[in-house]
Amino acid sequence: MSAPVSVVIPTLEAADRIGPCLGALGEAVMEGVIHEVIVADGGSADAIAEVAEAVGARLVITPRGRGKQLAAGARAARGDWLLFLHADTVLAPGWAAAVLAHVRTRPECAGYFALRFDTQGNAPSPAARIVAGWANLRAALFALPYGDQGLLISRALYDQAGGYPPIPLMEDVALVRRIGRRRLARLDAAAVTSASRYGADGWLRRGWRNLTTLALYFLGVAPERLARRYAPGEYGGR
User: Fold this and answer.
1) What confidence tens digit (pLDDT) does each residue in 204-220 have?
2) First vs last Cα of the chain: how many Å apart?
3) CA distance 159 to 154
4) What secondary structure does DSSP assign to 121-173, as a single string?
5) Whole domain around residue 72: which residue ranges?
6) How many CB atoms are closer than 10 A to CB 63?
7) Residue 98 CB partners (closer than 8 Å, separation 6+)
8) What is the pTM assigned to this prediction?
9) Pairing mode, strands 58-61 and 34-41
10) CA dist 157 → 6, 103, 151, 232 (Å)
11) To 10 degrees, the CA torsion angle through 33, 36, 40, 46?
12) Which CATH number do you get for residue 152?
């Protein structure tokens, strides 16, 4: 291993669903690929402190908001490389080798994973394949991977790009736009993300909401307003 990797995971009432994400990191921790795991929690009332302690992760308590939490986790990290993951994302087998290959051969670039959805053992529906396919195409064509695809980035490049902005939504898009197409590369592994929100809202409806949220962000709508539109239960009414 040529550089230690710090994993940063933002959480909010995620103690009951972060287990698979942490479990996928276990072997890499034992092998020394991962230097540390940081759970950046936005003030949960659940058992996240006990979960973090059980797996040897560092818990950082931060103001609520994914951008603020990711930035706080990055400030606390001691690794030369940072790997940002969502709490409901599970890295597929082979991810550690892909990370090592990237660190060794493309240190000037940030990396992201191919997106797949967790369909709980069932064959992916046509809608699931369409949504994942669009996400991977968007990342490839427009250099716009979302946070559920993970982000592997050197500390030097992260600092040069200005890090995550303290906004509640689109913090992932804001950062990768500053990184730029020439400094982004797809890793040869997948990030398997929970499909629960899509299942609750409907695949096409949720996909359309994501697309229109991105368009509104590019048109200059404030991220705080977009957050209330995207997830009213988390951020309050419009």
Assistant:
1) 788 888 889 999 999 99
2) 47
3) 9
4) TSPPPHHHHHHHHHHHHHHHHHS---GGG-EEEEHHHHHHTT---S-SSSHHH
5) 5-126+142-195
6) 11
7) 111, 113, 187, 188, 189
8) 0.93
9) parallel
10) 14, 12, 12, 34
11) 100
12) 3.90.550.10
